[in-house]
Amino acid sequence: MTNVWPATIVQTCIIHLIRNTFRLTSRKYWDELKHDIKPIYTAVNAQAARAAFEDLAEKWGGRYPAVIRLWDNAWAEFIPFLDYDVEIRKVICSTNAIESLNARYRRAIKARGHFPNELAALKCLYLVTRSLDPTGAGRTRWTMRWKPALNAFAITFSDRFPAAETY
């Protein structure tokens, strides 16, 4: 991915990382474990997250070494998440919305089989995207929910975000 888009920041889905953590543990420890992993993904920076991870490893490493290995293997893709403001973190902590959209794209393309040209394929994807909110009624809710994140994106990525340009 970075060969095609060199400015890309690769980040793992935090929600999936947390879910996988609980899949590897006994239900009776979930509340205690939830309390112990929260300081990792809510840390102010990578150093604080690493310190919280070390505490987690010390406490749970003997009982659940697979959980420690899971977080350790994902660490390089996890820490870019910590560089963002809280508003951006709320938006990018999960890839569920992107995965849902990709599933709809795959379903639409599979149903049609083939396209005469690239423009026809793009039109199909455009129509699938538009069908998510055909009346535009959800746009108001979307705008209000995303305003803090959009402002944070405009500041963080001012060189790549068109809304950050001054007029």
Shape: globular
User: How much helix, percentage-wise, in residues?
Assistant: 55-70%
Q: How many structural domains? A: 2
Report the C-alpha radius of gyration, rounded. 20 Å
Q: Please provide the count of β strands.
A: 0
Poorly predicted parts: none
What about the largest sheet? none
Provide a count of the helices.
8
One letter per element, helices H and strands E, the order comes to HHHHHHHH
SSE topology sketch:
Blueprint: H1 14-23, H2 30-41, H3 46-60, H4 65-78, H5 86-92, H6 96-112, H7 118-131, H8 138-156
Helix pairs in contact: 1-4, 2-3, 3-4, 5-8, 6-7
Description:
This protein has 167 residues and is mainly α. The protein folds into two domains: 14-83; 96-164, no CATH class. The protein has eight helices and no strands. It has helices spanning 14-23, 30-41, 46-60, 65-78, 86-92, 96-112, 118-131, 138-156. Helix 1 (14-23) packs antiparallel against helix 4 and helix 3 (46-60) runs antiparallel to helix 4 (65-78). The longest helix has 19 residues, at 138-156. InterPro entries: Transposase_mutator. Keywords: DNA recombination, DNA-binding, Transposable element, Transposition. Required for the transposition of the insertion element. This is Mutator family transposase. Belongs to the transposase mutator family.
Provide the descriptors you would attach to this structure in a database record.
single chain, about 170 residues, mainly alpha, 8 helices, DNA-binding, transposable element, Mutator family transposase, Transposase_mutator, transposition
